Target: NAD(P)H-dependent oxidoreductase
Amino acid sequence: MKHIIAFAGSNSKTSINKQLVTYTSSLVENTKTEVLDLNDFDVPLFSVDLEASMNGQPENAHKLLNKLKEADGLIISLAEHNGAYSAVFKNMFDWMSRIESKTFFGKPMLLIATSPGARGGKSVLAIAKDRFPRHDANIVGVFSLPKFKDNFSNGMINNKELNNQLLVEVGKLKNAL
Model:
């Protein structure tokens, strides 16, 4: 059975991106899906000086990177803070890329985002679509959910058209596994 790792690039306990990634992961049938929480992989703020004083990278960066390495596919829902990655995601990404520059190991990736606004995290998705392939991401699908509070309730997307768009992207991931 294929194994998918899913997580939100957020450390908010009420993260709308975690809600979206949890729902999305439930749509990938006949797979083992593990939804991770970045709060379980706490690392200090990256700096080369700290890295040198630690003689390497934090254990939690290695743990998350190993989870990605062991997976057959990835679903990542990026929180957008001021048009870019959240600080917690960027920090973890920085640490992991010091361990392995090809951070995503060529795994099929469904890249998603949501936000309260009408653009639905499109700015952070554009950044990730540009950056992640340089770290060996195999982005097979992309989905943006605008106006989270209007389009998501009871643990699922309530807008049929948007839900159908997500199902198409989930299908691309399933086909790539």
